[in-house]
Specification:
CATH architecture of the largest domain: Orthogonal Bundle
Number of helices: 18
Radius of gyration: 43 Å
Distance between the termini: 96 Å
Strand content: 15-25%
Largest sheet: 5 strands, antiparallel
Shape: elongated
Number of domains: 6
CATH superfamily of the largest domain: Transferase(Phosphotransferase) domain 1
CATH topology of the largest domain: Transferase(Phosphotransferase), domain 1
CATH class of the largest domain: Mainly Alpha
Length: about 600
Amino acid sequence: MFDNRYEIIRRLGSGGMADVYLARDTHLERRVAIKVLYKRYADDEEFVARFRQEAKAAAGLNHPHIVSIYDRGGAEGSYYIAMEYLGGRNLKQIINERGRLEPRQAIDIAAQILEALRFAHKHDVIHRDIKPHNIVVNGDGQVKVTDFGIARAGSAARMTETGSIIGTAQYLSPEQARGQEVSQGSDLYSVGIVLYEMLTGQVPFEGENPVAIALKQINEAPVPPQVLAPDIPDNLNTVVMKALAKDPRSRYRDADEFLEDLERCRRDLPVAPPPAVDEEAPTQVIGAAEVAAARGRPRRKRRPLLYAGLVLAILAFAALAMTAYYYTFSGRGVPVPDVVGLDQEQAQQVLRAAGFEVEIEAREYSDTVPEGRVISQDPAAGEKLKEGGKVRLVVSRGSGKVQVPDLVGQTADYAEAKLAELELEPERQPDQYSDTVPAGSVMSQDPPAGTEVQKGSRVKYVVSKGPEPPAAVTVPDLGGLTVEEARDRLAASGLALGSVSEVYSSSIPAGEVISQNPAAGQSVDEGTAVSIVVSKGPEPPSTVTVPSVVGKTEAAAGAEISAAGLTPVTNPVPAPTPADVGKVISQNPAAGADVSPGSTVVIDVGT
């Protein structure tokens, strides 16, 4: 029980700043999702203050495409938000499963995201972390955007000082990557990335780490999505490229403008290209703080290394320039400096100062060389190379041994996040049915938990689809069969005999099936019970006419009365004459009387 109100059912997953649980609100008797901040953030007073403020603002966003926030507070040494529980899948899962979406479906989803952002922006709330993981799509195609307010809280000053970049690098706008102030346009850029991924099945920028990706967001132009998927219409390709403009002035001004162009795409109308920006604007220098923010490292800690690197570069340049001049003009080439063991940036500075080009040939794990330092170089130190030649470096990724976590019983989202945290490559296998593991939970993994593997290794896991649904069976025709015959035929088809009822029928012989439910030819689940109605034969008459049996022998009279559906009863009486012995002298009821079937007819027989 959490905060004396929420009964925790199970863990749904983990994100960059919080764990998420499915819980039952015992006050209102409804299911909710509880997002509980990690303790490291809960201990940061400045962050908590910002979190409370932004959670309150987000709670005021009442919109059909925004997940509702029901409650917020603190408990058990942390802070939490209680929100609407959604049963659908997030957009990242859908893209991973399908690869890419049809343009019209991508437009529909993007439009719903923009409607949510339009509402939030009009209430002065910027999301800051729009990505497919925060977009839930239900079975009807309705979209809901989650995590409003949390990403904004994450921009508190304390977190900036520790060098964190709030948001996921693949979806960050260039201004976020620089650590600059964000605006509505930052969210719209992220929507452009999401739209790009829906249309192509991949994000425009990838890299070895978040810093490399963030730098690409700042410096590199994306490959137009139409290059990767030629069936994307020209107007939709223009919309994506406009949303991904590096300069916010060339993007959409607001969500309304973005939505208008998507509507034009939906109607196959042309879309205007992005507006041109002032080419004569003065070049801006990105300050050290911005570089530190983009690379996820605090400025204070980089100063000694930065100054040391600059001094080293200057001294190396002065010494090596003279050497390079001598060897180049003497035709002997230039000795390659020894950069093994240096930090990558220092090595690049030394080699470039000597007049060489530098290529990072590979990044390899090493248990002896610290992360970021040079493991080897080609050509080796001391070998001569003409000025402008290329020196290839292998850089350490640090120790590469990690233990595979236990994923069984966890959600797929948790598995993805946990493996990414350990720098392991998740590989989801086709989902399988299971009678023991709940749907949506990991049922198996390879390698097993606790196995020591190299970072970057693939970890396969299988998610349960829950119990296998019964197979479909066609109901056989049971008409005219007896009860036992119907039972046998149903069993042969994988079905069961349900209730058996009887009715009179003048056309169907007694004991045979008249009708059935479900009807013959209908498709039902295996094991379904089929009820039948059986004939009791013709309905007996409501009254019977008593036959005349006076003067007949006792045997003949009894047979005739029984044939009429009545019951004969013999009453011996003295015979008036010898000829009346053994014959019916009188009867009761009298001949011709109408009586109920089975009634008694007393015959007086002479003795």
